[in-house]
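My current task is to audit a protein record that another person submitted. Please read both lines and tell me whether the tokens look consistent with the sequence. Do not assume that whoever made the record got everything right. I have pasted the whole thing underneath without changing anything:

===
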Amino acid sequence: EGLVLSYKETLNHHQKNLAEFGKILKDLVEGQKFNIQKIGLVRFNPFREAGGNMSFSLALLDGKDNGIVVSSLHGREGTRIYAKNIEKGGSQYRLTDEEKQAIARSKGAREP
């Protein structure tokens, strides 16, 4: 009888631990949705007179497709950098083709 009670107590202890671990895991998974999880990069040449693909668009998205897309336009006179908010995979600002491509790449889209 003592052995059965000991096993029952151990089982109850393990069940409490499992419930606690389940809550911790759920909190971790939920919290990870707001970390950068998806990254897409597109290099391109926006100006005919500049050689090489020195310009780029970089999409950084979380698990809910929210984040930013950063674009750098490199020319002879200098480099300009732009950033646009991304919400649910889109933006309130007009996106360039390269920015759209960077977002699609971050989501794992295949190249044609």
Observations:
- Residues 26 and 92 are 32 Å apart (CA to CA).
- The chain has a mean pLDDT of 91.
- Residues 2-32 form the longest helix (31 residues).
- DSSP finds two helices and four strands in the chain.
